[in-house]
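Changelog note: in this version the structure field was regenerated for every chain. One regenerated record is shown below for reference.
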Amino acid sequence: MLRAFLAEQLANGAILLISELDGAAAGYLLAEISARPANPFRHASKSLYVHHIAVDPALQRRRIGQELIDAAVAIGRAESVDAMRLDSWSFNTSAHAFFEAEGFTPLNVVFERKLL
């Protein structure tokens, strides 16, 4: 299922970065460039949106995540994007610490109310 999902994402223009260590996948980053036109509520923007970033838990703290972010930043700069964006579950505080160490700052908060 993952292979089919990633193939579909790539066919639709997604960016997939894979980090290898000793010939095996150590982590990946899946992103897309998103251009939004201006409207009465916001300015036009072009961003690199990171949908997924994951590193094998056994290989974390070995700069793999930083290298994936750095590679995505290079792509974003080459494509003249305004910013890189991502979201994270509120409970994933270790990821938040990583993102903040990589220069990300919180932008907005999404609230949810269960109806069922």
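Spot check on this record: The radius of gyration is 16 Å. DSSP finds three helices and four strands in the chain.
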